[in-house]
Design a protein that fits this description.
four-stranded antiparallel β-sheet; two-stranded antiparallel ribbon
Length: 93
């Protein structure tokens, strides 16, 4: 079982969380005039890398807050967890 370190509540079992997808992507600027291609990229295109990745998670069985996790998508090792608004940690080498 994956243990996720909630920055508000501490380390908890993965069953207490919901995955929210890739972190730190931006909604199209001037969204009323954005092209269909811009919206399609925003809604559907994600990096899905093999390696280190920044993700959004919500602690649904605890504080019910969103936060970010730096996780390796192959080994599931977690390098960092940080609150929304905190500086982004560097991805491990």
């Amino acid at each position: 079982m994956l243990l996720i370190p909630c920055p508000y509540c501490g380390e908890r079992a993965e069953l207490e969380f919901r995955y929210g997808g890739e972190a730190h992507f931006r909604r199209p600027d001037n969204h009323l005039e954005a092209s269909d291609e811009s919206w399609a990229n925003y809604l559907f295109m994600r990096k899905n890398p093999k390696g280190w990745h920044r993700e959004r998670w919500m602690h649904i069985a605890g504080c019910k807050r969103w936060f970010y996790v730096v996780r390796h998508t192959v080994t599931h090792r977690i390098a960092a967890a940080y609150k929304v608004g905190d500086p982004w940690p560097d991805l491990p080498a």
